[in-house]
């Protein structure tokens, strides 16, 4: 049976590109029949990556069958995975997030979780000398994943390993990193075709903090005004999205990549309390500006208090 390789729901660039990288490695190097998959529509930056490197968009799946062989990348959180994931045959997990717990495997598995900015960085290290056989398009996906997750090395999650591997890939591909990253971020910033509900779910993860179920959404952009101009509509859409998703509240952080700060929307007293307790923020009206905040994983989730 073909092994499916996929990341989390609401796939960003890393959860779109890393399944492509690992499926190539399994199929072409390890001799395992494998293919990448997605758990939703990829974001605009991920679509740019697929188009730029002439890669096929992986099949979008809604669930997995019992005993389906799978490899999970860029997450280990059951809330971000298919409902039937614990009845599948999980063969491996490759991730760079904290260990959440709750997954059940049918036997011992290969699991690698490292404190790096990007799943693709971990894959580069595992693939090792076999990188010499990787085709240009797959290398391009790997580079795009690293530049995306590091925000072109601006994110505090960036390590020297992420940087060194990205520069090595760029050199082998003949890519100028600043020029290419600017194209990526321009694609990510174009959200004009998305509804407010789609924006709130586009790059979001579910967490339970102090007994409250929160959907924590982050929109990274070089044009924050394009999103903040829709602030009232986004705030109006939050209650319905929260209700449909079984959450108590949606939190939205608009990350300004170039100015290296986030703006948090403040629709009610709960979000005001969260902003003040978590980030010592000064809330003025329905927004709070958080200087230096760029990473959900390192600077938002660990500090959330309700």
What report would you give on this structure?
- The protein has 306 residues and is an alpha/beta fold.
- Helix content is 39%, strand content 20%.
- The chain contains eleven helices and eleven strands.
- It has helices at 13-29, 44-52, 119-127, 136-149, 160-173, 177-189, 196-202, 224-228, 231-244, 269-279, 296-300, and strands at residues 3-6, 34-38, 59-60, 69-73, 89-95, 110-113, 204-209, 212-221, 249-256, 261-265, 287-291.
- The strands form two sheets. A six-stranded parallel sheet has the order 3-2-1-4-5-6. The protein has a five-stranded mixed sheet with strand order 7-8-9-10-11, sandwiched between helices.
- Helix 1 (13-29) packs antiparallel against helix 4 (136-149), helix 3 crosses helix 4 (136-149) and helix 7 (196-202) crosses helix 9.
- The protein is globular.
- The model has no long low-confidence stretch (mean pLDDT 97).
